[in-house]
Amino acid sequence: QVQLVESGGGSVQPGGSLRLLCAASGTAFRTNVMGWYRAAQGKPRELVAVITSAGYTSYGDSVKERFTISRGNAKTNTKNTVYLQMNSLKPEDTAVYYCQITDGPEVTWGQGTPVTVSS
Are 44 and 62 spatial neighbours (Cβ–Cβ below 8 Å)? Predict the structure, then answer.
């Protein structure tokens, strides 16, 4: 059973930066897709960024040019760890951020980590 451990959320002022981390364990397939989604209060969950095992990435329109997703590698035993570097944060980035992994037919969500951008 896949498990996800998220960390790195918190509070920051507009223009600041935060880095989220998500580590997956228990994966069954050699390759997978990992990513981050977010849900602001009263709004549906939306894509932030995803990355494949090969390193291909995709971003939501609202975070392009500001957020960067990356993942570790087999050499450092972190190939199933993804990082989300969030720069130039705006108040509208305030949300609960959820890590997700698609491992074969199984989709697993993390518990979410809150991010608050406020002055």
Answer: no
73 vs 87: which has the higher pLDDT = 87
Distance CA 12, CA 85 (A): 13
Q: Which two tokens stand for residue 11?
A: 């509070």
CB count within 10 Å of CB 86 equals 25
Q: What is the DSSP string of 35-94?
A: EEEEE-TTS--EEEEEEETT--EEE-TTTTTTEEEEE--GGGT-TTEEEEEE-S--GGG-
CA distance 30 to 13: 39
d(CA 26, CA 17): 30
Max alpha carbon distance in the chain (Å)?
43
pLDDT in tens, 65-75: 999 999 998 78
Read off the tokens for 59.
């971003």
The CB-side HSE value for 73 (13 A sphere, CA atoms) comes to 3
pLDDT at residue number 104: 92
| CB burial of residue 63 (10 Å; 0-12, 13-18, 19+) | buried
